[in-house]
Structures are given as C-alpha cells and as structure tokens.
Amino acid sequence: MDRDATFSQSFRDFLHNEGVKPVRLPPQSPNLNAHQERFFGSLKYECVHELILYGETATRKAVGACVAHYPTERNHQGLDNELIVPMDRPPDMKVEIETTERLGGLLRSYRRAA
Q1: Is residue 45, in this structure, part of any structural domain at all?
Q2: In a domain, 64, yes or no
Q3: What is the dihedral sign for C-alpha 36, 82, 50, 98?
Q4: Does 81 have pLDDT greater than 70?
Q5: How many domains is the chain partitioned into structurally?
Q6: Residue 99: pLDDT band with limits 50, 70, 90
Q7: What pLDDT is attached to residue 76?
Q8: What does the pLDDT look like over 6-59, one tens digit per residue?
Q9: What average pLDDT score do residues 83-106 get?
Q10: How far apart are CA 50 and CA 8, in angstroms?
Q11: In which domain, by residue range, is 31 found?
C-alpha cells in the first residue's frame, strides 16, 4: 500500500488481525504502485464488475479464481502475449485443444491437452 492517509493505523491493524501483513511502499516509488494498480484494475474489470456478489464468501471465491487465472492462464501484452508463469514444456501440436473455465465461463483459457 502507498503512504496515503486512507491506510491509517487502525486500517493496518485490521489487516494484521485478519492475517494479512501490510507492506508500505517506500517513498517516491511510483513504479511499484503502478504494478499494483494495474493488477487491481484487471481484477475489477475482468472479474468483479462482471458479477453480482452476495457476501464475503462469494467475493473471496471470485477473487481467488481470478488470482489463480491471472499468472498461469492469461496472456499479458507487456510480456509479448506470454504467460507470467511459463508452461513446463512446449505443447504437443498433435493433440486437441482443451478449455479451462472459471467463474462459470467468465474466465476462459485454451491450451493443448497434456
């Protein structure tokens, strides 16, 4: 989190009580915050704004599905449309393509079957 007054001591204490270790960014480090803002923007645009979530459990499940999808199944333009976590081995081009769906098909990825 940045050093905005929004993230008060009581807010940081709340995070700590929930088991989250709050980490404050160093002063004058705009690039660190930009990466965080981009991730949360993608999370909101691709996932949260497309669903009607009732309660904390539904929100946690939706965010968990998005967090699992983001680094391993989603191509990233900043990485020349590559995955953040690369595949273990190159795909076999002779096998059929399979689909992985998350959140009822809202998040989809396609790859060759193993």
Answers
A1: no
A2: no
A3: negative
A4: no
A5: 1
A6: confident
A7: 61
A8: 788 888 888 888 888 888 888 877 777 777 777 788 788 877 788 888 888 888
A9: 72
A10: 30
A11: 1-40
This prediction's pTM: 0.53
For residue 4, being part of any structural domain is answered with: yes
Single-letter residue type at 105: G
Identify the burial level of 62 via C-beta atoms within 10 angstroms of its C-beta, where 0-12 means exposed, 13-18 middle and 19 or more buried: buried
Q: Please indicate, yes or no, if residue 30 is contained in any of the structural domains.
A: yes
Q: Which residue shows structure tokens 């333009």? A: 77
- DSSP string covering 5-72, please? TTS-HHHHHHHHHTT----PPPTT-HHHHHHHHHHHHHHHHHTGGGS---HHHHHHHHHHHHHHHHHH
The position carrying tokens 């002063």 is 27
In contact, 98 and 112? CB cutoff 8 Å: yes
